[in-house]
């Protein structure tokens, strides 16, 4: 059965954490700031009627997953970091599709960009 697409979503924007991610050894020797934006596409009809946390996606848990993976693991590529976060979220909410955007704030690049980042999307598993 194909995953159904919903217009409803639960999201977290601007979640910041410090981590040791970067392709070069020097980048992983010190912590850097990262920002995550996460959106889960899901049917929120039941929650909108019941007003019960059990019927929705708990954004507190989403934040926990992002911060835990972002601060307790180390990755060379932002793509891998974002993919692991997406997988961790889908373990808790397998019927949702998830988009994870990771920004490295003030990356060591020419032109001094505010941030550089990636966006990954994973479809619902169930």
Query: How many beta-strand runs?
Result: 4
Instruction: State the helical fraction.
Output: 25-40%
**Straight-line N-to-C gap:** 9 Å
Form type:
elongated
How much of the sequence is in beta strands? 25-35%
Q: Could you tell me the radius of gyration in angstroms?
A: 16 Å
Any idea of the CATH topology?
GTP Cyclohydrolase I, domain 2
Structural class based on helices, strands and sheet pairing: alpha+beta
Concise account of the structure shown:
The chain is α+β, with helices and mostly antiparallel strands. The protein has helices spanning 25-29, 45-50, 59-72, 78-92; strands at 9-19, 32-41, 97-105, 115-122.
Written overview of the protein:
With 126 residues, this protein is an alpha+beta fold. It has a single domain (9-122), classed as GTP Cyclohydrolase I, domain 2 (2-Layer Sandwich). 32% of the residues lie in helices and 30% in strands. The protein has four helices and four strands; from the N terminus they run βαβαααββ. The chain has helices at 25-29, 45-50, 59-72, 78-92; strands spanning 9-19, 32-41, 97-105, 115-122. Strands 1-2-3-4 form a four-stranded antiparallel sheet, covered by helices on one side. Helix 3 packs antiparallel against helix 4 (78-92). The protein is elongated and about 50 Å long.
């Amino acid at each position: 059965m194909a995953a159904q697409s919903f217009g409803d979503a639960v999201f977290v924007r601007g979640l910041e954490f410090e981590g040791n991610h970067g392709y070069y050894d020097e980048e992983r020797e010190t912590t850097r700031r990262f920002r995550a934006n996460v959106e889960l596409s899901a049917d929120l009809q039941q929650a909108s009627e019941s007003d019960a946390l059990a019927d929705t996606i708990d954004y507190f848990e989403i934040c926990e997953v992002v911060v835990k993976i972002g601060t307790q693991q180390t990755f060379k590529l932002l793509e891998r970091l974002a993919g692991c976060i997406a997988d961790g979220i889908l373990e808790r909410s397998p019927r949702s599709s998830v988009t994870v955007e990771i920004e490295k704030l003030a990356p060591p690049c020419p032109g001094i960009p505010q941030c550089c980042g990636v966006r990954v999307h994973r479809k619902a598993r169930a």
